[in-house]
Amino acid sequence: MRARRLGAKLRRLREDAGVKMDAAARRIDGDKPKISRIENGRMSIRRLELEALLELYGVTDERTVNALTTMLRQTRRKGWWHQYSQDLDPDFEERLDLEDDVVRILAFQPLLVPGLLQTADYARAVIRSAERSASEEEVDKWVSMRMTRQDILSRDTPPQLVCVLDEAVLHRQIGSPATLAGQLKRLREVNSPPELSVQIVPFGQGWHAGLDGGFSIYSYPDPLHLDVVTVDYLDGGLYLEEDSSVERYRRAFDQVRASALSSRQSMSLISRLARDLEKQV
């Protein structure tokens, strides 16, 4: 995914500079298919080639050059999830790669609490339901991975996380009543706007812009100005990087968030539902 993000940024820089693909190819002694593969993240680029292209595109800002050079170096780095790679779907590996150096995540989920905010018990219940043939050892490994994934939220400089949930998430019986109650308490405990905020779109809102499904918008540090959208579906996720697509989902998120209860109202609803569940335990 880092290679795709680097390629997407190089494509934008080339287009902004008005440089044709064949001119870029000549600069690095390649051909148009090579430039296409680099820009689509399907082929690695050497540092000297990167520097040559940036010079051709007129990119002289030191911060931008350093950021792209760092990104190139990171494309060769193995993430913490490498130890689990034999058990991971490639789409999910890309998701973990996206999260690793993000500075802001805007997330909407209509069905489940997102993995970054799940308790171990809730995660275990989700995994057991989705992977019914998995052994207890496999389930333990996946739960451990999900908990490790959450470490990005306790870094010295964690990403900002704005999470909007449909109220249905709070009612869906995942695991036992105690499991769901524990998960709702977790949402209340982590809510700390603006660094980490959880808001709920109530049933009474009716239609809203997120009813087509869950999605997340990942933003990366200046000066790269890179955003990536992930759209969830049954077999994985769709990754969108074009400015027009990102902007469309950004507007959708703004509309969904405008439909949601305030943070204080959301916490009040979550607390009430948690108390109701505790009475069933």
TrEMBL record:
Residues 10-63 form the HTH cro/C1-type domain. Keywords: DNA-binding. GO terms for molecular function: DNA binding. It holds the Pfam family DUF5753. InterPro entries: Cro/C1-type_HTH (IPR001387), DUF5753 (IPR043917), Lambda_DNA-bd_dom_sf (IPR010982). Coiled coil: none annotated. CDD domains: HTH_XRE. This is DNA-binding protein. It comes from Streptomyces marincola.
